[in-house]
Amino acid sequence: MNTDFKGKVIVLSGVGRAGQVGDFLARAFADQGGTLQLLGRNRAELDARAEELRASHASVETHACDLSDARAAEDAARAVAAQTDGRVDALVHVAGGFALSGPLAESSVDVWQQQLSINLGTAFATTRAFLPLVRAAKGCVLYFASAAALPGADVGGLSAYAVAKTGVVTLMRAVAAEEARNGLRANALAPAAIRTASNVASMGPNARYVEPAALCDVVLFLASPASRAVSGQVIAVG
Ligand SMILES: NC(=O)c1ccc[n+]([C@@H]2O[C@H](COP(=O)([O-])OP(=O)(O)OC[C@H]3O[C@@H](n4cnc5c(N)ncnc54)[C@H](OP(=O)(O)O)[C@@H]3O)[C@@H](O)[C@H]2O)c1
What we know:
The protein contains 7 helices and 7 strands, in the order βαβαβαβαβαβααβ. It has a 7-stranded parallel β-sheet with strand order 3-2-1-4-5-6-7, sandwiched between helices. It has a single domain, classed as 3-Layer(aba) Sandwich (Rossmann fold), CATH 3.40.50.720. About 45% of the residues lie in helices and about 15% in strands. Helix 1 crosses helix 7, helix 3 runs parallel beside helix 4 and helix 4 packs parallel to helix 5. NADP nicotinamide-adenine-dinucleotide phosphate binds next to helix 1 and helix 4.
């Protein structure tokens, strides 16, 4: 299987704190020679991740932005285009986050709006802004949905998150249908709990987790030409 990303431009959104998914994926793409364009909303964390990667000679640029803001996403896409001749081989949209909402009748409007904004709003704004760059490379878009968006998932207490991630799946299907004629693919991952620093802090080390290395293997496969026959799919992980 060829997952060599030398000469390929990878845009990774949602890169922030160490030990989270964006951190693992940035390292995995860098190890395979990818040219990285990292997006995140915390400039200090983003720059810290970039410095760690540059220490091992990775090619990395950063763009701090709030991706729920469509104009900020467009500005980030323009900045990336200027550094990549307008081409992006893979857009991996990791930005998002989890919060419990509790039973709907008692749930908070703020949690609802925040979950839709960080998970679905960012997916919409980032996709819309970056599609011309991905089209130019006949590349692919990869989304982070969740096991909570799979049919039959127990979504009690998680309505805002589950609705937002289900929306991400539908957005992915629309992109896959609309962009096939442009040679572009779109897929979504639906992971169970991942062994991230924040999950281990809240659930302990012995809970059942998807290991980061296993997750990265799936992402690299889906971002590579090895998966060229796969589009419009939701891939359960874990
Ligand atoms: N961890 C899991 O077990 C698990 C399971 C299934 C699916 N997922 C999904 O996989 C992805 C990565 O998970 P994770 O645990 O690594 O997530 P995370 O650390 O909570 O968040 C991912 C990153 O997205 C950034 N972000 C959030 N809203 C943003 C915005 N408006 N603009 C720009 N960046 C924004 C966050 O920045 P801040 O730090 O500033 O918030 C953070 O750096 C998420 O989409 C998550 O929902 C995770």
